[in-house]
UniProtKB/TrEMBL annotation:
Domain Ketoreductase: 4-209
NCBIfam families documented for this protein: PRK08219.1 (NF006073)
Record bears the keyword Oxidoreductase: yes
Organism, as annotated: Nocardioides yefusunii
Keywords carried by this UniProt record: Oxidoreductase
InterPro entries registered for this protein in UniProt: KR_dom, NAD(P)-bd_dom_sf, Sc_DH/Rdtase_CS, SDR_fam
Family: Belongs to the short-chain dehydrogenases/reductases (SDR) family.
Protein name per the record: SDR family oxidoreductase
PANTHER family named in the record: DEHYDROGENASE/REDUCTASE SDR FAMILY MEMBER 7B (PTHR44196), DEHYDROGENASE_REDUCTASE SDR FAMILY MEMBER 7B (PTHR44196:SF1)
Pfam hit, one: adh_short
Length: 237
């Protein structure tokens, strides 16, 4: 397969890191983003041996819309043709509606929903040129909103709406849009959720990030005549 260019947020950890390693190992280019220059250096060092592919790490905080707009413009200019855009970066803050602070609402809505929307908008010309695949890494919380999960679930319900509208808008342009719904996955985010839930965390109890990444890779590698609009992946036990 010809090496391809993927814009992948959240390649520094968890599911995104696993996917970046898979793409780099087969020689593809991965353009990702880290929230600071120091974090960018760590991500470069961490993925240095992943394979022959090129890793480009831009610096932007996805919680800051002005930085996201700058990022989108820079990537659009540097990479005229983009084969996939994978929105994997995400944040979670549990809390009841009566208690959840403003910063937690804004960070979840900005990182999980607004940043994907702005990057889709600003990269759409580049995506259309390559008949690209857009993947939104969603969550079970994008379908069901449980107590304590309002902020995260609202952002992920919004992400589902973004994917559904975009899919319909881009029908006929060659751009395919997939929402991926993983259940609990053994990452830093899941460890944090357990802490906030006051439960002990054991990574071995949950699906591994590489399992979710392999599913996303399958979506990215579909022939142009096929698409998977929604993909649910769950722990088998
Ligand atoms: N883990 C689960 O159980 C689970 C289940 C369902 C869905 N998901 C979804 O799967 C996706 C990946 O989650 P994960 O579990 O792999 O999470 P993770 O291990 O916490 O990794 C999240 C990644 O997003 C990046 N990120 C977060 N906020 C950012 C910001 N403001 N600017 C730039 N980068 C930022 C993080 O950067 P740093 O490395 O610098 O922190 C990290 O690389 C998320 O969308 C999540 O909602 C996760």
């Amino acid at each position: 397969m010809t090496p391809r260019i993927h814009v992948l947020t959240g390649a520094g950890a968890g599911i995104g890191r696993a996917l970046a390693a898979m793409l780099l190992s087969r020689g593809d280019t991965v353009v990702t983003v880290a929230r600071s220059a120091a974090r960018a250096d760590e991500v470069r060092a961490d993925l240095a041996d992943a394979g022959p592919g090129e890793l480009v790490v831009e610096v932007a905080d996805l919680g800051d819309v002005a930085q996201v707009e700058r990022l989108g413009a820079e990537i659009a200019q540097a990479h005229p043709r983009i084969d996939s855009l994978v929105h994997c970066a995400g944040v979670v803050e549990l809390g009841r509606v009566a208690d959840l602070d403003t910063a937690s609402w804004l960070s979840q809505l900005n990182v999980n929903l607004t940043a994907p929307a702005l990057l889709c908008r600003d990269l759409m010309t580049n995506l259309r040129l390559a008949h690209a695949t857009v993947v939104m890494v969603n969550s079970g919380a994008g379908r069901v909103a449980n107590p304590d999960w309002a902020g995260y679930a609202a952002s992920k319900h919004g992400l589902r709406a973004l994917a559904d509208a975009l899919r319909a808008e881009e029908a006929g342009t060659g751009v395919r849009v997939t929402s991926v719904y993983p259940s609990r996955t053994a990452t830093d985010m899941q460890a944090k959720v357990h802490l906030q839930e006051g439960r002990p965390y054991r990574a071995a109890d949950w699906m591994q990030p590489s399992s979710v990444a392999a599913s996303v890779l399958h979506v990215l590698d579909l022939p142009v005549d096929a698409t998977i609009p929604d993909l649910t992946i769950r722990t088998s036990t």
